[in-house]
Amino acid sequence: MKRLGLIAGLICALLLAAGTYAGSLYLGSATVKEDSSFIIPAGASLSSVARTLEEEGHITSSEGFVMRARLFGSSDPIQAGEFMLNAGMTQGQILSAFQSGDVIRRFVTIPEGMPSILVHERLMAEDLLTGEIEIPVEGSILPDTYDFERGESWQKVVERMQAAMDLYLAEAWAERGPNIAVDTMREALILAAIVEKETGKASERRKIAGLYSNRVKTGMLLQADPTIIYPITKGKPLGRRIRQSEIAAVNGYNTYTRVGLPVGPITNPGRESIAAVLNPDQTSALFMVADGTGGHWFAETLAEHNANVEKWYAIRRERGEM
Asked: Theoretical Cys-Cys bridge with 266: which of 17, 141, 190, 230, CB 3.0 to 4.6 Å?
């Protein structure tokens, strides 16, 4: 240690006497010619990292890099992870990046209304994540864009997604309006999942939430087609028309045969659908049918609804669908 201190002192004296050029000859320099990633394994020492930097052509001298770090760098340890080395970086900038833990962040997006079975498939397709996960509980994931780093576990990413849902749901529940149709946060999540799947236009979301809230309050069957499909595919597209036998099926989800809410969510609803259920439009609508543009015609009476259904059938006949 005394010898190393003496050498460091001599080098400092040399730098002061001879200037930066002489220092660079002894301590080496960075030679990062193009942007590239660099991985530091967990537990790696500064010396081993410097050797790898030299082997990969990012610096001219591993010994010089270590000496420069000891002379001029901070006492912070280097961090494990994947780092971006940018063209033209100096050795000091490289060391600073390693010490700050400024790792490369990658992103995965979960869109609103993506069921957990597809969330699982999307995460498993990220080959830079590690470990194993089960399909997350339906409705436990908050749709959003999440960052992750190389080597992180799938489970940690899922836990962040679930923590985000718990936090948002609690915040939205605290801001709920009066006379809503649900009594608990879980019921809000279940109804929001239906609203999410039934909303074709964002501008209709709160009205659809109001319609289904009216049905829940009056004890009407919700008759939401996505609740028929969910027990069959777990949220994946059905890929065909719904059969009469499936409409008549009795299970915990099918709201054509079950009064009230399903036993659980049928997808992962987004923030807007949750907010809509907790602050729905004040509407008298009880019925809706597609209008051919991605939206719906709404009706307060069955007679009005039947007339809208005939208009929808006429559109389908013009399209050759009937």
From this structure: 230
